[in-house]
Each structure stands twice: as C-alpha cells, then as structure tokens.
C-alpha cells in the first residue's frame, strides 16, 4: 500500500483513535465527531479507525446517520473474550460502519488450543483483522506460537493507568522478538503517549516511545537479539531516534509496518505534536485544538 501524499511510509495509519479509553475517556458523543474531523484534517493519512468497546455499540447506533454517507471506520474491542465475539460482530453488522478489526481479550486460564477453537467459531469476515490481546503470563510464548499458523494477529499492552501495567524493556523486547520471529503481525495499546522513551512528569511512570517500538521491530526483522531490542526500547535521545526513523527508507518502513501495524492512542494530538517537533512530519500536520481527541 502506498502512503497518502505527504505521509511518510513509517507513519501511515499508525494511530488508532482510542479516544474513549483511559486516560482520555472521551464520551462517545464527542469521540465520533472528533474522529470525523481527523478524517478531513491534513494529518488524516496517519489516523486509523476509531476504537470502541463492544458494550458501546448500542449507544453508537444513535450517533451514526442512516443512509449512503461515508461509513465510520471502526475497531471493536471484546474484553469478554472469544465467546463474546460473535455478539459483537452481529451488533457491528447492524451499524453503518466499516469494521476494520476486532481485538479480543484472552480470559484467565484459557490456553492456546481453546482460544483458537473459539475464535474460529466466532465467524469473522475475511476483511476483518482479528487481534488477540496476548496475556503477560506464562501463556504468552505458546499463544504467539499458535497464532503463527492462523490469520489472527497479536496485541500487546504497553502501559495503563498504573505503573505495573507498563512492561519493562526486556519484557517488551521478548514479546516483539517472539512475534517477529513467528511472523505474527502485532499492534500495541496503552501508554505510548510519546514518540520517545520518557518518564511521565505527572505520574513518574516509565513510558515506552512508539518510535522506539518501531525501531525495535526493525531490529528484530534484521535478526537482532532481545538484548539489542531492549537497548533500542530504552533509548531516550530523540534526535538520534528521529534520524534512524528518517533513514529507514520506504522499503524497510513498509516491512516494519507490516509487522508493527499500529498502536492505540487516546490522544491523536500528542503523537502528532512529537512527530512534527522531531522533524518527521511537516509543520502543516501539526494538530490544532479542533479535530483532536
């Protein structure tokens, strides 16, 4: 896929609009029109679908106009696990939306075999990408290995509202390495508020940078080991990281993005502001208050 005009390959559709999720928690009635503004903004090519939880679909129905207008691009999260996926698919099918992806949690105690069997029974359409939120426990290696032989993808949680929800560099490096080696595309969610590894001045949380994650994926594709990936994830020199991203070139950037598909962010403005500040996007793509979540 060719990047939209003005959008570098590494950044196309990189930002899934998770405005309704913590810490942003935008009301659905505000998130939908804000997403529509993103779609017509100068930075539209960087923004992926709106992300909504399955239990918000009933409310979403009242916010979408009927008729032949543009359908809302949508990703649905299913925290209830694969057994709840069929109901979420049916609810989305009744809406004027373009369902792009479904993200399914793995219930406690569920192993890879049962997970795949229940996902297969859910009846996902061929055009819908399915992401499995791989748990941060002993099941992770087996689930990633099992996904390799399927159409399903991985989702890694990279932060949250508590410090312990942020995996350390070594843990995230292991996850990226496992997914890349298995040929399993993945997305990330939560905690990637900025382009570069940082300490949040408000909370003191150590936060991963989404450009660090992109470069760690590139390193994994080149055969680097977990230690090197962890070093890339720990890098805090924004200028050095920006130079490496700019130097990827289109071919390597496309390969990286086939592996690291996107990440969910409750603020479209924050990552855009960082990319402009680092010189990786032109100033005209800098977000304004209007059109940001």
Describe this entry's structure for a reader.
By secondary structure, the chain is α/β, with parallel strands linked by helices. The chain is 37% helix and 17% strand. It has an 8-stranded parallel barrel, surrounded by 5 helices. Strands 8-9 form a two-stranded antiparallel sheet. Helix 5 packs parallel to helix 6, helix 6 (169-182) packs across helix 8 and helix 7 (210-221) crosses helix 10 (249-259). The longest helix is centred in the middle third of the chain and has 14 residues, at 169-182. It is globular and about 50 Å long. The two termini are 27 Å apart. The model is unreliable at 289-293 (pLDDT under 50).
Q: Name the strands of the widest sheet in spatial order.
A: 1-2-3-4-5-6-7-10
Count of DSSP H/I helices = 11
Order of H and E elements: EHEHEHEHEHEHEEEHHHHEH
Strand content: 15-25%
Q: Structural class per helix/strand content?
A: alpha/beta
Backbone CA Rg: 18 Å
Report the end-to-end length measured between terminal Cα atoms.
27 Å
Count of strand segments: 10
Inertia-based shape: globular
Largest sheet: 8 strands, parallel, barrel
Helix content: 25-40%
The low-pLDDT segments are: 289-293
The average pLDDT score comes to 93
Quaternary structure annotation: single chain
Produce the secondary structure layout.
Blueprint: E1 15-17, H1 28-39, E2 47-53, H2 57-61, E3 72-78, H3 85-93, E4 97-105, H4 112-122, E5 129-133, H5 140-147, E6 153-157, H6 169-182, E7 186-189, E8 198-199, E9 206-207, H7 210-221, H8 226-234, H9 238-246, H10 249-259, E10 260-265, H11 269-277
Parallel strand pairs: 1-2, 1-10, 2-3, 3-4, 4-5, 5-6, 6-7, 7-10
Antiparallel strand pairs: 8-9
């Amino acid at each position: 896929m060719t990047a939209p005009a003005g959008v570098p390959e590494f950044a196309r559709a990189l930002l899934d609009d998770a405005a309704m999720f913590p810490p942003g928690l935008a009301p659905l009635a505000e998130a939908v029109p804000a997403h529509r503004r993103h779609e017509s903004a100068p930075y539209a090519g960087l923004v992926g679908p709106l992300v909504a939880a399955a239990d918000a679909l009933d409310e979403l129905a009242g916010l979408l106009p009927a008729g032949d207008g543009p359908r809302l691009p949508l990703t649905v999260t299913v925290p209830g696990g694969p057994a709840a996926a069929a109901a979420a698919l049916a609810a989305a099918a009744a809406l004027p939306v373009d369902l792009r992806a479904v993200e399914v949690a793995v219930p406690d105690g569920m192993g890879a075999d049962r997970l795949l069997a229940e996902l297969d029974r859910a009846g996902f359409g061929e055009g819908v990408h399915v992401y499995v939120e791989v748990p941060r426990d002993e099941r992770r290696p087996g689930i990633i290995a099992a996904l390799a032989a399927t159409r399903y993808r991985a989702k890694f949680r990279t932060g949250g509202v508590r410090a312990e929800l942020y995996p350390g560099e070594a843990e995230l490096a292991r996850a990226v390495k496992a997914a890349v080696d298995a040929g399993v595309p993945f997305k990330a969610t939560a905690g990637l508020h900025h382009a570069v590894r940082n300490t949040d001045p408000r909370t003191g949380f150590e936060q991963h940078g989404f450009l660090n994650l992109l470069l760690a994926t590139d390193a994994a594709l080149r055969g680097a080991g977990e230690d090197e990936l962890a070093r890339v994830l720990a890098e805090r020199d924004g200028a050095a990281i920006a130079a490496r991203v700019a130097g990827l070139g289109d071919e390597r950037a496309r390969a990286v993005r086939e592996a690291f598909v996107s990440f969910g962010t409750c603020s479209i403005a924050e990552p855009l502001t960082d990319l402009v500040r680092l010189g990786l996007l032109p100033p005209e793509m800098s977000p304004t208050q209007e059109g940001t979540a």
